[in-house]
Amino acid sequence: MERHVYDRMAEIDRDHWWFVGRRKILTALIGRWRPKQGPLRILEVGCGTGSNIAMLQQFGPVDAIEPDDHARAFATNRTGIAIKGGYLPDVPLEDGRYDLIVLLDVLEHIPDDKGALAALRPKLAPGGRLMLAVPAMPSLWSGHDVAHHHQRRYTARTLEAETRAVASRAGVTVGRVRVGDPRSRWGSCSSSGDIAYSWRLILMPVAVREATVVHEVAHRLHMHHGPEFHEEVERLLGRAPKTERAWLKAHGAAMHRVGR
Ligand SMILES: [Zn+2]
Fold it and tell me: What is the 101 CA–ligand 1 centroid distance (Å)?
C-alpha cells in the first residue's frame, strides 16, 4: 500500500469521532481496572499505525508488535518506539513482563485466536490484565483492514445478500449489486435494475444500512421519491426511516471522510 493511505488512516485515527471516543472510553476503563498503582508495563499487540500508543503511554512504557510492514514502519515513525514484527505466537517476548496487554480489533483477524491468547498468557506479570476489543458489528477498522480491503469484500457479500432478500420480499428482480466508492451517494438504482452502494454503509448502524437497501430496492417499483415510493419503503422496512435519515444527516459528512 502506498504511503498516502497510511497518512490518511493516521489522520482518521486521530480525528474521527469513533476513534476519539473510543480512546476516551479505553482511558477510563484502564484507569478503573489498572492492576496496580504507578507506571504499568504495557504491550499492545497489533498496534496498526500506532494510533493508540500515545493514549496507552499515559499509563506507562509501551511495547508494541505489528505484523504489517508498512503499518509498523508508520507506527515506529509516529511514536518513536521500536515495534516488533511477526505473527503470534512466534514473537519473542519476555515472560511475566507486562501488567497490561491490549488487543484492539486484532483477535478477529488471527486464525488461531485461542492459540494467540494462550501464547500471551505467560507474558503477563502476576495480577496482570488482558484488555480486548473485538467488533460487535463488522464495522470496525484499522489501518491493516483498510489497506487490505477486508471490509470492501465483506461489504459486497453482506449488501448483496441483504438486497436480494429485500427484493424477494418486494417481488422484484435486481440486476448486479455492486459496492463502490461514490463521492456523495449511499446507494443508487439504475433503470435496468443494477444497484450500487457505498462501501461505507458497512461502517454505519445496521438500521441505516437496512433502510438504504430498502430505499434502493423500492426504486425497482417506483423510480422517483413520490408518495407511493415512500409507502413502499415503509411497507418493506416496517417503519418510516426517520431515525436513519437523521443519522445520515448528522454523520454522513464524517462517514465520507473515512478511507479518503
Ligand atoms: Zn432514491
Answer: 47
